[in-house]
Design a protein that fits this description.
alpha/beta, 4-stranded antiparallel sheet, decarboxylase (chains A, B), EC 4.1.1.28 (chains A, B), aromatic-L-amino-acid decarboxylase activity (chains A, B), homodimer, pyridoxal phosphate binding (chains A, B), PyrdxlP-dep_Trfase (chains A, B), 473 residues
């Protein structure tokens, strides 16, 4: 395909995407397919000779759309959001055409420096302490491939720091005694990061709002020190996946400082809302953290992957993540200014020019535009909560503080599981469940910008309709 | 931005990309900027109110192009290739509009199943043993976020397996004795993966072709067992980054089997060429490996990230990488067919719908089209080699078996470093150096499909011109 042919096919694709988004309301929010459905639909090996673009295009509806969860549908309320916006897509189109990896400054100078600037822009939007800014001192931020990567980088860097402190012991001897903490409501990726780092992790009890409190953490640390263990790492969550609970950072932070533990704050979803002054208090105490992470690809309209990750002192993560190879060595990075080589900030060497889409989105939305979107989602969640509260058969499971509403029938788990299964079968909306302290409930999330007030009402009508059928049967 | 506005802006971007690729020859292959250049060019915080698309578009040349390494330029011969093609870009455009993450089957059924099919298609193109195919038994493949991730997943899975074997010891006691092997010419990511996994790694000597041989590995294992260490993992390279050396898999494989070591084959670049029958012998012995990886984003015209990774037995990697969370549990994956939940194959939960661009590329190029591209690159490398050999001032450093030519002036390292610096200053071509056994040399790689025979001649003229100046000064 030469450039002129791309002009034609690319325009085709822009039109297909436009039409797709124009008609998104008419598509099933999740597909009616069973595992294995695809094998009958496509050949079992690649063609030897190339096919035309028209052939491929003709298969999009038959193959792709038929089996797709429509995360862009206004009726998709599952999980937590994954963002996508047209400005971000434009940025990714250009990045995909240029493919210039900012693994080192020399391999893509503008990719590196735009990432430096965008991480500082976003840090300012969040009112992060100066230490987290490139322009503020020893800290800075980068785009990680995922929040899982962010947590993993935090924990292995904390591990490196503590192993260094025990010079008289082997790494294995230290490792056998290390203990990390998070809450029982934390995301599965925290436990996964600990597994990968080969360290034990305790998932601590939360309060009646599903939040981790300082007293609980302090007691666990005391208990473990008595056992001869070495507490070294805490992952606090601002906005848990199940209920959007906010751990109490103001209590947890000072304890981490006093006990010399590395505090990582996982604020992937709710942290995005902290660009609004009224929600910023959620991360009060962030100055006690060593590393901090939000996912702009959740609620700031930037396509994934875009996990923003900051550290107070670059050296703390660069040292455990650096390897030197001649073919990577810097050629020209010197005239008094030092720019980061982002390969030393994470696992990957080749990495996308991800700052481009951030730049597009921050400029085309503006801070105000992003704030308004968040406020609109919050308001719609409140609308949904009011609808639930007005129906005495239902109850709200957790405070509604974000775009997420957790609710259930005032009945047993089996009844709620049955209700979910009936809603699923209707295929009119897509929601997902969770379970906390043995209680099974349904989660309704404002997941996508296509959702409007009328869709909230529609979703509630679907749920009520299925509840009517269930309770009268 | 509503869909209709995207129709306009998206078409704008398609035109910009087309014009960019149409004029790529006229752009400097790498930019004339110094670290810190960007700070003067853009504001130091995000705008409060949104800007127009036209504003952003007007900054593309001034800001982005000014500081970009032009990896798409026919005169870019640095590192190893990172692929980009129009068919892949079309796939990424659509994936970016839909944003549907195949972290689990239920979160994106077609994304999951198309990945299953594409990994099988590619395995067949490479003539991998049946065990690596989903349709062949217990194995299968997935897209990793990078080759670094692939190696990391391999080593931590091998680590989990061996820790399980020593049930009478703590994990720390086992860890302190674990030893992994690779060659001194292996990619830096192998050493990095070992660091992250907290295991020791020995970088073994290579033969006169920079390849790891069986006898060297066997001797190291014997030596380490005598010391009481526990050998557990070998990473062999098919196509090293410095010289594209091919480790001898046929020798290494049987040793790994006999000694019960996990063999991972890192074939990121040269492995792509194994879709051509004439290069397939490079991976003879692959049946001895437990995990195997190539980067289609290097030489199969698929935009990054696309690191293909296969394992003989899914359980070997799923067990150490699985965590269970209610909000991730499978709802409907059951009617006799089991499809993978790819979140259990790697670090990331949210992951791109990467199979789409593979499907586009495999269909629109066809196997034959991809083979012909590789053969063309090989032929151009041979042309360049002939030019070097015809100039008695130069020597070839390693056998030219791929698109990479390693060469140097028959002089000392300082002279070659000086030559590189002069070539850099000319800014007419971009090449990068490496060093093996203390010898500094220059690397010329056919990196991008825009490069033609005349560009090879041009590059050699630039190099000769600078060499003339250097040697006459």
């Amino acid at each position: 395909m030469d450039p002129e042919e791309f002009r034609r096919c690319g325009t085709d694709m822009v039109n297909y995407i436009t039409d797709y988004m124009d008609t998104i309301r008419s598509r099933l929010p999740f597909p009616d397919v069973q595992p294995g459905f695809l094998r009958e639909q496509i050949p079992d090996e690649a063609p030897f000779h190339g096919e035309s673009w028209e052939n491929v295009k003709n298969d999009l509806e038959r193959v792709v759309m038929k089996g797709l969860n429509q995360w862009r549908s206004p009726h998709f309320h599952a999980f937590l959001p994954i963002a996508s916006s047209f400005p971000a897509l434009l940025g990714d189109m250009l990045a995909g055409a240029m493919i210039s990896s900012p693994g080192t400054w020399t391999s893509n100078p503008v990719g590196t420096e735009l990432e430096v600037s965008m991480m500082d822009w976003l840090a300012k939007m969040l009112q992060l302490p100066q230490q987290f800014l490139f322009s503020g001192g020893k800290g800075g931020g980068c785009i990680q491939a995922s929040a899982d990567d962010a947590t993993f980088v935090a924990i292995i860097s904390a591990r490196a720091k503590v192993i260094k402190q025990f010079k008289d012991k082997t790494k294995g001897q230290v490792l056998d005694k290390l203990i990390a903490y998070t809450s029982e409501e934390a995301h599965s990726s925290v436990e996964k990061a600990a597994h990968l780092a080969l360290v034990e992790i305790r998932c601590l009890e939360t309060d009646d709002k599903f939040a981790l409190r300082g007293t609980t953490l302090a007691a666990a640390i005391r208990e473990d020190r008595k056992k001869g263990l070495i507490p070294f790492f805490v992952c606090a969550t601002v906005g848990t996946t199940s209920t959007c609970a906010i751990d109490n950072i103001s209590e947890i932070g000072p304890i981490c400082e006093e006990e010399d533990l590395w505090l990582h704050i996982d604020a992937v979803y709710a942290g995005c809302a902290c660009i609004c002054p009224e929600y910023r208090p959620w991360i009060n105490g962030v100055e006690y953290s060593t590393t901090f992470s939000i996912n702009p690809h959740k609620w700031l309209h930037i396509n994934p992957p875009c996990s923003a990750f900051w550290v107070k002192d670059q050296e703390l993560i660069n040292e455990p993540l650096s390897v030197d190879a001649m073919y990577l060595r810097v050629r020209s990075a010197s005239n008094g200014v030092t720019m980061p080589d982002f390969r030393n900030w994470h696992v990957q060497l080749t990495r996308p020019f991800g700052a481009l889409k951030m730049w597009f989105v921050f400029r085309m939305f503006g801070v105000h535009g992003l704030q308004e979107r968040i406020r609109k989602d919050m308001a719609m969640a409140k609308e949904f909560e009011a609808l639930v509260l007005a129906d005495s058969r239902f109850e709200i499971v957790a405070d509604v503080v974000s775009g997420l509403v957790c609710f259930r029938l005032k009945g047993d788990n089996a009844q709620n599981e049955k209700l979910l299964s009936m809603i699923d079968k209707s295929r009119r909306i897509c929601i997902t469940p969770s379970i906390s302290r043995g209680i099974f409930y349904l989660r309704f999330c404002i997941s996508v910008y296509t959702t409007e007030s009328r869709d909230v009402v529609f979703a509630w009508e679907v749920i009520q309709h299925e509840a009517d059928a269930l309770l009268s049967s």
